Amino acid sequence: MRGLRIVWMALLAVVLLVPAAPALAFDGGRPDGQVIFGDDFTLEAGERLDGDLVVSGGNVTLEPGSQVDGDVVVWGGDVEVGGIVEGDLAAFGGNVDLQETAVVDGDLVVIGGRVDRDEGAVVRGEQIVNPGRTIIKLRGWPVVIPFGPGPIPFGGLHFTGYSLLWEGLRTVLSVLLMAGLAGLVAVLWPRPAALVGRASLEAPLPSLGVGLLTILVGAVVVIGLVVTLCLAPAGLAAAVAVGVAAVFGWVALGILIGERVLAALTPRSVSPFWSAALGAGLLTLLSGLLHLIPCVGWTGGFLVTCAGLGAVVLTRFGTVDYPPAVPTPPVPAGEPE
Question: Which helix (H) or strand (E) covers residue 90, if one does?
Fold first, then answer.
C-alpha cells in the first residue's frame, strides 16, 4: 500500500543517510534512484529520473516537463514541483509548492510544513498535511492513536496517518536521552540524586504539592518578568532553572526505580550507570505509553514531573534529607542501652 511505502521509504532514508556521501545512487528496488544528503536537487525540464528520489537537508525542484518515475521523500527541505511524480510525495519538516503544471499520481504527505497548491495542480491520491490524533475502538474500549488521516492496516484494523512513526521515534529518543542522562547523574552526583529520589517516593504527597506549587509560582514569575522586557533575561533564567530542576527530579526518581527493580530481579551487583539508565528509561517509556490512554494522556507524566520537582525543592537540590531524620533520644545515665 502506498501509505506504508512512504513510511518504509522514510525509514530507509534514515538508515542510508547516516554514512551517505553528498550524492550517491540508491538501489532500492528501482534502478538509478537518487539519495542526496546535504545538497539541493534540481530535475530540469525534459529530464526523467527512473527510480525513487530521497533528499535530506536540501531543497528539491522538479521543473515543468520533468518526471520522477518513483516516490519522492524529502527531509528538512522545501519541495517545488512543476513536473510529474508517478509515485508518492512526502516532505518532513519542509514546505511543498505545487505549481499549476504539477502532477502527483500517488499520495501527498507533509509533516511539519505547509502546502501551497496552484489551481490546476493534480494530486490523484490523498493529501495529508500535519495529521493529528484520532480515537478508535479496540475490543470496545476507546484508544487514542497518534494518527491522522490515511489508512494503514494493522492486525485487521485500519489505523490512519503517519504520526505513528514520529510518536514512536519521539518516544525512543526520549527514552535514550533520559536513560543516558540518568546514568551520568548516577555516576557524577550519586548522593544528591539518592536524596531526591528517596524524598519523591517516601513523601509523594508533599513532593507532589510542592512541585505543583513551584510550577504555578514559577509560571507567574516568569511571565511577569518576561512581559517587562527589561527583565526578560531574568525570566528566561528562571524558566531554565525550573526546567533543570524538573529534569533532575525525573532522573533521580528513575535512578531509584532502577536500583529497586534490579535488586528485585538479580542479587548481582550492577553498575550504577546501567541501573540508573534502566530506571529512567522505564519511567520515560511508561509515561509515553500512558500518554495514549484516554482520560490519562499527559497527566501521568505531569504528575511524575511535579513529584520529582517537589522533591528537588524539599531536599534543596539533594543537599538535605527529607523527611528530616528524627534524632535518637539519648539514653539516660545508669540505664542499659
Answer: strand 89-92
Per residue in 141-177, pLDDT tens? 444 444 444 444 333 333 444 455 666 777 788 889 9
136 pLDDT more than 60: no
CA torsion, ordered 232, 235, 239, 240, to nearest 10 deg: 70
Strand-pairing partners, residue 136, are 143
Q: Using an 8 Å Cβ cutoff, are 21 and 42 in contact?
A: no
- What contacts 324, CB < 8 A, 6 or more positions away? none
Place of cell 505513528: 164
Beta bridge partners of 142: 137
**Dist CA 79 CA 61 (whole Å):** 6
* Residue 260 · residue 201 · CB < 8 Å: no
Whether 56 and 13 have beta carbons less than 8 Å apart is answered as: yes
Cα 335 from Cα 266, distance rounded (Å)? 44
Give the domain ranges of the chain.
Answer: 2-129, 167-314
Q: DSSP characters for 290-316?
A: HTTSTTTTTHHHHHHHHHHHHHHHHTT
pLDDT, one tens digit per residue, over 229-274 is: 677 788 788 888 898 999 999 999 999 998 888 888 877 777 888 8
Closest CA to 161 of 171, 146, 172: 146
Q: Is-contact 183 276, C-beta < 8 A?
A: yes
pLDDT for residue 103? 95
User: For the chain, how many residues are written?
Assistant: 337
Q: Are 276 and 181 in contact (CB under 8 A)?
A: no
Contact call for residues 13 and 73 (beta carbons, < 8 A): yes
**Residue 109 exposure: Cα atoms within 13 Å on the Cβ side:** 31
3-state SS class at 227: helix
